[in-house]
Design a protein that fits this description.
Blueprint (H helix, E strand, L loop, with lengths): L2 H9 L3 H14 L2 H16 L2 E6 L5 H15 L4 E6 L8 E4 L2 E4 L2 H14 L2
Parallel strand pairs: 1-2
Antiparallel strand pairs: 1-3, 3-4
Length: 120
């Protein structure tokens, strides 16, 4: 990855930040280049978003694997909105199209403690 793209991949973390960046590029362009940037922005806004809470800061290979799997399973590209949340412990908390699921070990541990307290 070139230096500029690597810097962008480390600083742009949300769809909103990327759209803002594309808008700034479009301001400096004209004609077909401006139209292409506008087209990319519209495509980006139309992609579904998946929110993912995980306990670690993901590396590029993890992001690539997850993105490819989601594209295969959903049949389309998606935007990953990743939050690093140490309370997740293991697994992930996922939100997609307003549906929220907790697949973390922390949830299972909480359930075990709740069951123990209820049966004590």
């Amino acid at each position: 990855m070139s230096g500029n793209l690597k810097h962008l991949s480390e600083t742009i973390r949300t769809r909103e930040e990327l759209v803002f960046f594309l808008e700034k590029i479009a301001e400096k362009k004209s004609g077909p280049e401006k139209e292409e940037v506008s087209r990319l922005e519209k495509e980006l806004r139309a992609l579904p978003e998946i929110k993912l809470d995980i306990a670690f800061s993901p590396k590029d290979n993890f992001l690539n694997t997850i993105s490819q799997w989601l594209q295969r399973e959903l049949g389309q590209r998606t935007i990953l909105d990743i939050t690093v949340n140490p309370k997740v412990v293991a697994g992930a908390i996922i939100e997609y199209q307003g549906i929220w699921r907790d697949f973390s070990l922390a949830k299972k541990i909480d359930q075990l403690f709740s069951e123990k307290l209820t049966h004590s």
